[in-house]
Write a structure and sequence with these properties.
about 130 residues, globular
């Protein structure tokens, strides 16, 4: 399988699983200490952690079958995963937190960015 397609499939599936999970059970974020104390909090989690993630999954999934989109989609994959990872590092440092689950999530974000970078560097027309 072409590297770009593989990377985008992994990204699409990952975002879809997480997004659907947040749409159906926003209370799962309690695992990282986020308590939904108001009904509006669940709406916000469903919108941002659910809807946004599902939207990204759809974009990456559509890009799989459109070679002309591969470079842009891989760049987006790298930016999204790296942005989340850098934000998480900042939060861990500022908060002085060394939670194993948060470190696992950081590793997954780094892997997602790294996978996208690996595929992008080997994509047609790469420098």
């Amino acid at each position: 399988m072409h590297r770009a397609r593989f990377s985008l499939i992994v990204a699409s599936v990952g975002f879809a699983v997480f997004g659907v999970g947040m749409l159906l059970r926003p209370s799962l974020l309690a695992a990282v200490g986020i308590a939904l104390t108001e009904p509006a909090a669940a709406v916000e989690i469903r919108a941002f952690y659910g809807g946004l993630e599902v939207g990204l999954a759809v974009f990456f999934g559509l890009a799989v079958g459109r070679p002309g989109w591969h470079r842009a989609a891989l760049t987006a994959q790298i930016a999204v995963f790296a942005g989340a990872g850098l934000g998480r590092v900042f939060g861990l440092v500022v908060g002085g937190v060394l939670d194993p689950l948060l470190l696992l999530l950081l590793a997954l974000e780094a892997a997602g960015a790294g996978l996208g970078l690996w595929a992008l560097r080997r994509a047609p027309g790469a420098p």
